[in-house]
Amino acid sequence: SLPMPEEKDFRDYILIFPIPNMPPVYVYLSKPPVKLFEVDLYSNFAGRPRNGTHADHMPSAAAVKENLEKMYPKLKQEKLDNLSKNVAAIIIPAEVHQKLSATYGGRNSPAQIEQDAKDLRAAVDRDFNAIKPALKNYGATEEQLEKAKSKIHELNQEQGLYK
């Protein structure tokens, strides 16, 4: 339909030219909803229906940003914001994120951010272990959760956040 709606990402559309001399038509491609306990880069969850879940950064975006600021002090804020989205995340129930995540909202203090930024791997382990018992109450097995944590570490290593 024309014009293309503002609220969607341009990459979510394909452009169709139905017949000559007719304006193009934008066709929206819907993305599949996220799955509980799915792990991917935070940026890859953009535009996907959440259905009562949240994508929890592992480690927190604030810790990643502070870590990158120290490593690359000349990076612009916009670049830092983009890079902090290229961090592993796990899909968890919104309630677990809001009530138990160590870094949700106001619980992520400047002191905690500074500590986490110094050792991002340890921050992941601490944050993950804080929500792990609650995730078991939502049906996750120990094996699923350990596999998810391993994938979180793998993705963050691929991004160069730690070894």
Automatic annotation (TrEMBL):
Keywords: Antibiotic, Antimicrobial, Bacteriocin. Pfam families: Pyocin_S (PF06958). Coiled coil: none annotated. This is Pyosin/cloacin translocation domain-containing protein. Residues 2-28 form the Pyosin/cloacin translocation domain. Transmembrane segments: none annotated. One of its GO terms (biological process) is killing of cells of another organism. The keyword Cell membrane does not apply. It comes from Photorhabdus temperata J3. The keyword Ribonucleoprotein does not apply.
